[in-house]
Sequence to fold (395 residues):
Amino acid sequence: MQVYADNAATTKISKTALDAMMPCFETYYGNPSSLHTAGQLAKEQLESARERIADCLGCEPREIYFTSGGSEADNQAILSAARLGERKGKKHIISTAFEHHAVLHTLQKLEKEGFEVTYLDVREHHNITARQVQDAIRPDTCLVTVMYANNEIGSVLPIGEIGAICKAAGVPFHTDAVQAVGHLPIHVKQENIDMLSLSAHKFHGPKGVGALYCRRGLPLVNVIEGGAQERGKRAGTENLPAICGMAAALEEACAHMEENAAKVSALRDRLIAGLSQIPHSARNGDPEHCLPGIVSFCFEGIEGESLLLLLDAKGICASSGSACTSGSLDPSHVLLAIGRVHDVAHGSLRLSLCADNTQEEIDQILEAVPQVVEYLRNMSPVWRDLQTGKRQYIL
Ligand SMILES: *Cc1c(COP(=O)(O)O)cnc(C)c1O
Fold:
């Protein structure tokens, strides 16, 4: 039996989302910018999708801008706030050390341009506090960009509190909510979020489509130049099938959010209880504030890559850190940021669940992981040194 436990990397598209896409290929194939009937019918579908997504987030439809995914939304949000800040002589940004690369690499680009970025420490509780944001705000701060939930370790950040602080300080607040949308209840107005990034393929929608929520009155700069689509802020003929699939997937995720979260977190807790039995292991992530579906562990004395390959051979699809880091020799920046040393960070495993996973699958994982960990440890010279006392255990 194949067990798919890598839902934080991407999810399987739902039947509902797929069904919502088909009419856009077969019937609503007009260009929403065309004035003829075929175009206007497509335009109706586009605006209906926008309204339904806005409803799920608690904002107005005109505050939703469709993008090619979470990465583009992150880029556009951050660059927009930076350009606005620059005009006012403000070039300081606050973020965290464990953001997704779509955020971190955009910030690094701005640092080369002379922006200063404060990366909040995430070692305590594998999370940040609103107080840390409060203390980091300066008169020249032009943006706070803090993820809603971490994609590698599942920590859920205190977004509502941070929103209130940013609002009081008059600092624009962006959140990369790619792992949270469709999984946690979000209301952008109540949480004082000015900009929010989301991506359909993380909640059983299609890949290559996402959205940026941007509060009315906050100016966006274009990342893609061209036609006047998306109120002139994002050029290119709209990917209507994907957008309609995203709207259907989000509505479905929001309609079943509570029951899904209850089911998935019960599976998660079972998994955590089982994996915690493995000696010299440690769970990563904030144990109190965490996503329903993400479980991350470090096992001392093994290589995460070998672990993944052996689990795959047993039919289990998992991940070691983020998909973007695999294939590189550097351990995950997230695990280093929470304070794991290199050797320990290398032995990481992320299992990310969804409501399609079953108890039997969890049992299959709990049978396989301890076996594979033991097998790898028995072959490892590092493990031998730990056992003979030549080297000290860290975990
Ligand atoms: C997946 C992910 C992204 C990137 O989204 P894409 O749609 O794949 O570009 C950004 N941030 C987080 C937290 C993610 O998990």
The longest strand covers residues 294-299.
